[in-house]
Request: fold
Amino acid sequence: MSDTKWNVYLSGEIHTDWRERLVEAVERAGLPVAFSGPVADHASSDDCGVAILGEEEDRFWKDHKGAKLNAIRTRSLIQKADVVVVRFGEKYKQWNAAFDAGYASALGKPIITLHSPDIGHALKEVDGAALAVAETTDQVARILHYVIEGDLDSAAKGKIGFV
Reply:
């Protein structure tokens, strides 16, 4: 077991439980990982700027304030990350996730993208910057197990309790 605590930033889609499933799998495997990510409550993320800094009449300035406050968190946590996992879902366009991937890439952070093959063409540039392209949270958990522990047998054969 590795003694190093890995920081993994979970970016992207906020409308499913992919984060919870990944965290549970990694915890079951006993991997030394600390997870972080954006504020996943959509309303809080949208309204933080005006709630803290004051109302705006124009939607642009409301969004501008919120984006800047959220960027403080996002940039700080991506800078501290050892690995960045970027999830692209089916239902919504995650422009912010693409931006996070670009930022992580510019910092030289290892990126794992997570999405269905159906949207692979649209994400070809993002996937081109990624060191791994996964289709399931199970694959991401197995990648993390392999890179942290260096144990291919357990990661490849599912001996670590992933579901």
Observations:
- The helical segments are 18-28, 42-53, 59-80, 95-106, 124-129, 137-149, 152-157.
- The two ends are 21 Å apart (CA to CA).
- The first strand starts at residue 6 and ends at 12.
- The mean pLDDT is 93.
